[in-house]
Amino acid sequence: MATSMELRCWGGDWGLPSIHTESLVVLAYAKFSGAKLTVAPIDWTWRTLTGTVPELVCQGSTVTEPAQILNYLRKLRFNADYELSARQGADTMAYIALLEEKLRPALLHTFWVDTENYSSLTRPWFASRSPFPLNFLVPGHHANTALSRILLTKSDSPLHTITEVEGKIYSEAKECLNLLSHRLGTAYYFFGNTPCSLDAFVFGFLAPLHKASLPSSPLQNHLRQLENLQRFCDHILNAHFSSHPGSPQPVQETVDANLQKLTQLVNKESNLIEKMDDNLRSSPQHKPFRADPRPSPSNSTDYFQSEEPTNTKMNRFEHLLQTNIVTFHISVEIMNVHDEELDLKTL
């Protein structure tokens, strides 16, 4: 019997299964190793503030942090690195450490510290996926955590501000991207023809930067100059995440679907018009009865000398008379009520 595993993470957008870097790492590794995960987004829940994501729940135990989750999956025999040599395994650990040290601070600054990106993209996204009143707390909480981490890891002095270390972190991040681009070359994956844990980490770090619509990002502009890294992200999305709910549909398929809906609507309207026309044609047509305002001399001026039977005319006349009498009584009652209201106001 297969083990049931649930991964709690932030939801997807921008064509990604998740916009969260650590969650993307675990999702990609699960795809590479064949692990079946049930994804449970924490969006619109109270766990957006207190939850530690990604979080893997399996057989009553909970595992957090990407490195620990990957080790746990390896113990369950979901290993994407089993074909790597000892040297390739050592290179994998070295490149993952490089990502954490050189690229992570720049990503945190890009999404959480940069004022323009934070106010126009990051804060609205996380606020819209947090329930009230957490939508006022969650973005600020993550932004403060990101700023503290950058200053703690990259500031040489506790008195340094984020402006003083900004140039340093972006310079190191661009060097890291250049090294990754040189190591990847023209291949689809970093080691051989199958993806491994290094591919999962690089994809998790680069995919949000590649897909997000950032108004201000020198790091994203540098990534766009490295075509092989962009191709790397797109290849993994198409090969392993093409059917996830956050993936965009092709434009042609969307146009065809809209055209089909429009055609169905027009057909329904045409059928309705045809039915109405058939009903009108099949219903009996009666000539409307109107009194001739200017009777000709050859015809009698008597109202009852029409083509209808006399009894029918009398019944209509009596009905009309009774209706006028009822209307008169109702008018009298309304006038009495109005007079009573005026008397009360006078008193």
TrEMBL record:
Per the record, its GO cellular-component terms are: SAM complex
Question: Which residue spans traverse the membrane?
Answer: none
Q: What are the alphabetically sorted keywords of the record?
A: Membrane, Mitochondrion, Mitochondrion outer membrane, Protein transport, Transport
* Record's keyword annotation contains Transport: yes
Region Disordered: list its residue ranges: 279-310
Q: Where is the Mitochondrial outer membrane transport complex Sam37/metaxin N-terminal domain?
A: 23-141
Q: Which InterPro entries match?
A: Glutathione-S-Trfase_C_sf, Metaxin1/3, Metaxin_GST, Mito_Protein_Transport_Metaxin, Sam37/metaxin_N
The listed locations are: Mitochondrion outer membrane
Task: Provide the Metaxin glutathione S-transferase domain boundaries.
Answer: 173-236
Q: What is its main location?
A: mitochondrion
Give the family from UniProt.
Belongs to the metaxin family.
Q: What is this protein called?
A: Metaxin
Report the source organism. Answer: Esox lucius (Northern pike)
